[in-house]
Amino acid sequence: MNEFELIARLTRALPTNESVVAGAGDDCAVLDLGALDKLVLFKTDAVVEGFHFTQETPPEKIGRKALARGLSDIAAMAGTPTAALVTIALPEKFDVEFVAGIYDGMNALAGEHGVAIVGGETTTNPERILISISLLGTVARGKQILRSGAKAGDAIFVTGELGGSLAERHLDFEPRLAEARWLAEHFAVHAMIDLSDGLAGDLRHILNASRVGAEILKSSVPVSRAAKLRARQGSAAKPAFVAALTDGEDFELLFTVASTDAVKLLDAWKQKFPKLKLSCIGKIVAGDGILIRDKGGSHQLNAHGYVHFA
Amino acid sequence: MNEFELIARLTRALPTNESVVAGAGDDCAVLDLGALDKLVLFKTDAVVEGFHFTQETPPEKIGRKALARGLSDIAAMAGTPTAALVTIALPEKFDVEFVAGIYDGMNALAGEHGVAIVGGETTTNPERILISISLLGTVARGKQILRSGAKAGDAIFVTGELGGSLAERHLDFEPRLAEARWLAEHFAVHAMIDLSDGLAGDLRHILNASRVGAEILKSSVPVSRAAKLRARQGSAAKPAFVAALTDGEDFELLFTVASTDAVKLLDAWKQKFPKLKLSCIGKIVAGDGILIRDKGGSHQLNAHGYVHFA
Fold it and tell me: Any CB–CB contact under 8 A between A2 and chain B?
C-alpha cells in the first residue's frame, strides 16, 4: 500500500461539520469560521531527518524548508499565511545550538512573509529530528483556488524551472505567495497546486480532482539547469525531461486558466514578475491521463510519472 | 536543558503580527482572523510510541488519546473545537489495520464533539509511530480564558480526581469541553489550564503567568482511587497525595474565580454536573510558589513538584 492508497483509505469517512468549505484532498483545508469577507486556510506539513534533510544540512536551512513547504501550500490556494505552530520532536540528547539554528531559519522566513509563530511544542523522538508545522492563513471569500476547477480547453501554466531540486533548491526555494495572490486577483485561475511530488504527479492530482486529462508539449516544459547538468553525469542518470516530470520538491505553481486568457496572462506576467519564468506547457482535454507530445508524436505518461519514449 | 528551558529559549524572539491576541505560552494560541464575534484558537499536540502509548495499546485508544489531548487544551480556553489536521509518521512497514484503528478512535471522538477532520498527511518515521494533531477552535470574542488572570484572593478549583492516570485514565479521559464553556458563560473565571503535567506543575504555570502564589489545603485535593491503590503497592510507591500532585495526564480543569463566587459556583456545579466532582483546593495569594497546608502546618512545594513533609 503506498502513501496515496493509505490516504485514500483513511480519508474515506472523516467526520465533518458545517464549517468545512473544502476538507482533505486539496493543498489546504478551507474553513468558514465566521468572518464576513474571509475564509480560513489550514495546513500541516512535516520534515523528517534522513528524508527531507540530514545531520549535515545547515540548521537554518532545515527550519526555512520546514516552514516554506507549508507556505507553498498556502500559495497554491492563493492565500495569505497568518500564523504557524511548530512541533519539534528531538532525540533526548540534542544540540541546543542546532535546534536554535532551526528556529532562526524558520523565524527569518516567517518574518519575510509576515507570519506569526504562536507556539507549538517540543516532544521526544529518540532516533531522529522530526519537525511538523501547522499553518493558518486566510483567503478572500470565494477567491480560494482548488485543484478541482480545471476545464477542457484550459491552458496549463507552470512557474520557474523544474527538476534537479535536490541538488540545492529544495532548501532555498521561494514560496510563490505574491505570485499566486496576483494571479487570483487579476485572472480567473481555474485550478492550482504547488509542485511537491513533481509535475507528473501533481498535474495528475489536478486532473483527478477535475475529472479531465492533459496534453503536455514536451518542448515547452521548462527544465532546470540542475536537471540538465545531472542528466549529463553518465548513462545511469535520469534524462533531464524525466527529472523535470518526476524529481519533486520544485515548489513552483502549476495552474490552469481559460485558453482565451493565456496570451494576456503571459504579457501581464512579464511586466509584473520579469525575473520568474512562466511557461504555458499544454492544455486540459476531456478524458483522463497525461499525453506527452513531441516531434515524434504522442505518448501516454504511465501511472508512476515516468514516460517511456519509443 | 529541560523542555521548559528549551522552550523559553526558543520562544524568546518569535515573529508576530497584528492577528495575534495570545501567542506561545498558553494552552492555545488566540488569533483574530476577522470574525466580528469570535476569536480563533490554534493548538498542536503530539503523541509518540514508547512515550505516550506502546505497541500493545489498542489503536483506537491511541487515536482517541491523540485527539483528546488537544481538545483538552481547547477546553482550557473555554473554546469550541472546529477542525483537526492529523499528521501520522509511520515506519516503512506498517500494519494498515492498526493505522485504520487509530483513525477509528480519532474519528469517533471527533464525531462526539462535532470536530471535522479536514486532512493532514502521512510521512515516514522508521523507528516508531508519531501522531501530531493540529486543532482549530473558536471562542466568543473576549471570553477566552488565559493562564494569566489569577488574582490574590481567588479560590482555586479542580475538576475530577487526580493521580494514577497512567493505570488507565490517560487513554480514556473526557476532555472537559462542555464544563469549561458552561463555566465561562456563568462565572468570571480568572485563569484556567488543563492538567497535563500534574497539579503542581500546571498550577505553577498559572502562578508564573499571573505573577502570584498559591496555598493548597492538602485535605481538599481530590486524590484518585488509582493513585491510592498504587500507593499501597509497597514502600517504593509514590504516596497518593504526591501522585495527585505530580503524575500528570489527568486532563482535568484547574481554574480560579473570585472567592465571593466560590459557594455559588459549587452549588450551581452540583446541579449542572452531578457526576463530576468539583473541589475547591485552596487560594491564590500574593507572592510566588506553592504552599501546602495540612494539620502539621505549611510546607513549600519544591521546584520539581515533589513535597517533602517532615
Answer: no
CA-based nearest distance A89→chain B, Å: 9
Mean pLDDT of A75-92: 97
Q: Residue A117, Cβ neighbours under 10 Å: how many?
A: 27
Q: Which CATH architecture has domain B15-140?
A: 2-Layer Sandwich (3.30)
Q: Sheet containing A278-285: which strands, arranged edge to edge? A: A189-194, A253-257, A155-159, A278-285, A213-217, A290-294, A297-300
d(CA A205, CA A27): 10
Distance CA B160, CA B275 (A): 9
Query: What span, in angstroms and rounded, lies between the C-alpha atoms of A225 and A5?
Result: 34
Distance CA B66, CA B48 (A): 9
B93 CB within 8 Å of a chain A CB: no
- Please check whether residue B9 touches A, CB under 8 A: yes
Q: What CATH code would you report for B155-300? A: 3.90.650.10
Kindly state the DSSP code that residue B250 receives in the 8-state scheme.
-
How buried is residue B304: exposed, middle or buried, by Cβ count under 10 Å (0-12/13-18/19+)?
Answer: exposed
Nearest CA in chain A to B111: A15
- B178 in A contact zone (CB under 8 Å): no
Distance CA B248, CA B246 (A): 6
What are the extents of the domains in chain A?
A: 13-140, 155-300
Q: Considering the domain A13-140 in this protein, what is its CATH number? A: 3.30.1330.10
Average of per-residue pLDDT across A8-16: 87
For B274, counting Cβ atoms within 10 Å of its Cβ (0-12 exposed, 13-18 middle, 19+ buried), the class is exposed
pLDDT bracket for residue A133 (50, 70, 90): very high
Q: Do B23 and A132 touch (CB under 8 A)?
A: no
**A251 vs B294: CA distance, rounded Å:** 62
pLDDT tens, residue by residue, B174-200: 999 999 999 999 999 999 999 999 999
Q: Does B130 reach chain A within 8 Å, measured CB to CB?
A: yes
Instruction: Kindly state the cell numbers that stand for B186.
Output: 456563568
* pLDDT lower than 50: segments of chain B: 308-310
At position B97, the amino acid (one-letter code) is E
CA distance B5 to A267: 54
Q: CB-hemisphere CA count at 13 Å for B95?
A: 8
Which residue of chain A is at minimal alpha-carbon distance from B19?
A82
CA distances from B302 to B288, B295, B308 (A): 12, 19, 8
The residue count of chain A comes to: 310
> Phi and psi dihedrals of B255, rounded to 5?
-155, 165
Please count the CA atoms within 13 angstroms of the CA of B105 that sit on its side-chain side. 20
